[in-house]
Structures are given as C-alpha cells and as structure tokens.
Write a structure and sequence with these properties.
1 helix, Pyrrolo-quinoline quinone repeat domain-containing protein, PQQ_b-propeller_rpt
C-alpha cells in the first residue's frame, strides 16, 4: 500500500498508512467561534467519492459508501478496509439527474449478528446491484441485480436507506432529479435465505417515486413508506400516489392514506413523498412538499381522506428524529419539534431559527442537523431549538445526515467523511 499523508498544520504532522486517504485535522488550522468560545472545527477523511447515505455505526467502526461504488470501514479516523464493488454510471449516461457519478446513494444496512453489510449500487451499465459484504473484512459475499421491472433501469435511483427486517433486505426506488424517463416507484424485498425478490409497484399511472432518504417506519408487522406524485391528476382515477402505504413483509399493501387533494397535489408537485413516515407512539407522522403535516393512526391510516392537517408550515424533506412523544421534523425552514399526544393531537413546540435543512438525529443530549446549503453542522437544544454549537463543514450532499459514534458526530460530505466532537 502507498502511505497517505495526513495534511496538518506545522505542529500536527503524522503519518497514516492508508491508500487513497487523506486525514485533515482542521482543528489544528482553524477554530470556529460559538457563543464567545472556541470550538474545534473537526477532522475530515477523504474517500474516493461523495458519501450521500448516512454512515452506519457499530461499536468503534463506521461504515460509509461512496458514489464511486466503494464501501469503507473506518475506525479511529483510519480506514480498516475498503472494497470497490462496481464502477458507477456517469450522469451523462442517465436521462436526467444531479449526482455525478451515480454509484451507492442509499444508506447501507448492517446485520451485526451475521457480520454482513448490504449496499445497492448503480453500475456503469445502468443496473442496480445488491451487494453483501463481510463487515469484518470487506469480502463480497453476495451479488444480485435488482432492477425494478416497471420501467427503464437508467430512470431509477435507489436513494432510500436499505432496511433489514423479516429475514429480508428492503430497497426502495424512485426517479432521478428531474423526474424524467420511464419509471414507477418500487420496493424490492430480497429474501436472504434464497435471494428470491418480491416487488411492490407504487403507482398505476407511472412515477410515484419512493425516494425519501431515510428508512420506512415499522409497526404492527408492517413497513410504512411515502409515495410521491404520480401522473394521474384532476379527473383521473386514483393511482396510489401522494400517499403513505403500509406494506406486509412480502410487500402486499395492507393499508394506505392519501389526502383528498391528491389529484391537485400530483399536478402541482406537492405530494407527501419527500418525507419518510415517522412512528410516534401509535401514530404515523407525515408531512411533505405542501407544508401540511398529518398525524395518522398507524393501525388504520384512513384511505383517501379529507382529514385536516394536524399542523402546517413544514415543507419536509427526509427523515425525522423521534424521542418519546416528540418528532423533530426535517423542514426546509429549519428543524421543527412537534409533540404528538396519545390522542393524536399535534403541538408545535419550536422551530429552529437557524437554517438547518438536513435530517436531524439525537445524540449527546442534543439535536444534530446539517444545513447542506451553507455547509454547517448545528447542535440544537432539544427543549428550545436554540443553536448551542455550529461547525463549518466541507461541501455537503443533499439530505446530509449525521450519525453518532460515541462522543463523535460523523457526517458524509462530497469528498468523504467529517468528524466533530459531540461533547
């Protein structure tokens, strides 16, 4: 292996024997002032591409996957192993999109008991391939093409987090940025005992992408996904889009909710598909592009319903963080905390005053959320929403989501990973 240099300030030199990795100790070069105190900006680890999916943490190991089609295991800011599973497809090979190149976009899934890590990558010939890797060594243990059978493969993007449940890996699909080409939202369920694949087709009219970047909610033995806008508009029959769907383990639809305004929502691109459903107690919380938030009974979603929104003013993109009866929502105007009572009543507790538009997490007693427009990581007081710390970051991908690794917050960037103190 070639030795990769750790580029530090003059007083902080050290060596790292890792191929193609540059560890940059930003705290040696700059301090970021927060509330009159100096806070170390963090460290970065350069990988071979952008990390769009939230990193996965297990013990002292962080797993990350890049748009260049490479999977990494990182411990103590150094690469333990890396496996290049496939070359990605350039944006020029897609009908539209804004990821270049396009490789592994969705968050990996880790089976800690079986020591298996799963990723889906888009290959240079526009196929979507599920890989299983030994989480200890990075050796490839399975490889299975899972192109959705409802459209043209290049038109699909596998953005949502992979999910392990019921002895299966679930992978959801939507379209590329620009919503072009021939595709229909889909979910694949890969049975890990025999590699058989079951499919759910999200729309009867086309489109209806399942693309929100987090995981589906799970309750009552069901998986809850949001579905985006379809081709059916005013005057057309309902096409199963602009909805929350509850799927059985083998992907039969058991229940759904759609606002009575679904046709107008589809026509105006104001659907529910931009947020992952969140489970709060016995309720599903969902908002979307229109800014209206709904609180649904997880055991009876309600079908097509004229129920009034439970709260407004939150155009949500991504996954919420949940603690007890409070959901911290990924609103474009900033994280918003909403308390959900046992009867489903929603109370907005606060709206962050900083422009934190990413997906929030809870760690070390604070809400951590990134603003991918400005390249800033915020720590918010969960009781008030006030920013208690903020850190400059490298350029971030859309929907950048932090992960907690002990006393460290790790964040995917357009060049690799960034690490920040969580104290």
């Amino acid at each position: 292996m070639n030795s990769a240099r750790a580029i530090l300030s003059a007083s902080c030199h050290r060596e790292s024997a890792m191929t193609r990795v540059i560890l940059t100790a930003l705290w040696c070069a700059a301090l970021f002032i927060v509330g009159g105190s100096a806070t170390a900006a963090g460290t970065t680890l350069t990988l071979d591409g952008a990390v769009y999916g939230q990193p996965v943490v297990s013990g002292d190991t962080i797993y990350a996957a890049t748009e260049n089609g490479t999977v990494y295991a990182v411990a103590n800011s150094a690469v333990r192993w890396q496996t290049h599973v496939a070359d990605p497809i350039p944006e020029s090979g897609l009908p539209c999109g804004d990821i270049d190149p396009e490789g592994i976009t969705g968050r990996p899934a880790l089976d800690t008991a079986a020591h298996r890590l799963y990723v889906v990558t888009e290959t240079s010939d526009a196929h979507h391939v599920l890989f299983g890797l030994d989480s200890e060594s990075g050796a490839v243990t399975m490889q299975l093409t899972i192109d959705p059978p409802f459209g043209d493969s290049p038109s699909y993007l596998q953005r949502p987090a992979l999910t392990l449940a019921n002895g299966r890996v679930y992978a959801a699909f939507g379209g590329n940025a620009g919503d072009c080409g021939n595709y229909t939202g889909a979910v694949a369920a890969v049975d890990l005992s025999n590699n058989n694949v079951a499919w759910y087709q999200a729309s009867t009219s086309g489109r209806g992408g399942i693309w929100a970047p987090g995981s589906p909610a799970q309750a009552n033995g069901l998986l809850y996904y949001s579905v985006g806008n379809g081709n059916a508009g005013p005057g057309a029959d309902y096409d199963n889009t602009d909805s929350v769907v509850a799927l059985t383990p083998d992907l039969r639809r058991a229940d759904f909710f759609a606002p009575a305004t679904w046709a107008d929502d589809n026509a105006a691109d104001k659907d529910l598909g931009s947020m992952n459903p969140a489970l709060v107690g016995s309720h599903i919380v969902i908002a979307g592009k229109a800014g209206d938030g709904y609180v649904l009974d997880a055991a009876h979603l309600g079908g097509i319903s004229s129920v009034a929104p439970a709260f407004t003013g939150c155009r949500a993109f991504g996954a919420a963080a949940v603690a007890d009866d409070i959901a911290y929502l990924p609103c474009t105007t900033g994280t918003t905390a909403v308390r959900i009572a046992a009867d489903g009543t929603a109370t907005v507790l606060w709206r962050a005053t900083v422009p934190a538009n990413g997906q929030p997490i809870l760690a070390s007693g604070r809400v951590w959320v990134a603003d991918w427009h400005s390249g800033t990581l915020y720590a918010l007081d969960p009781a008030t929403g006030a920013a208690t710390q903020q850190f400059p970051t490298d350029t971030l991908p859309h929907f950048a989501t932090p992960a907690a690794a002990g006393s460290t917050i790790v964040l995917g960037t357009m060049t690799g990973l960034a690490f920040f103190p969580a104290q």
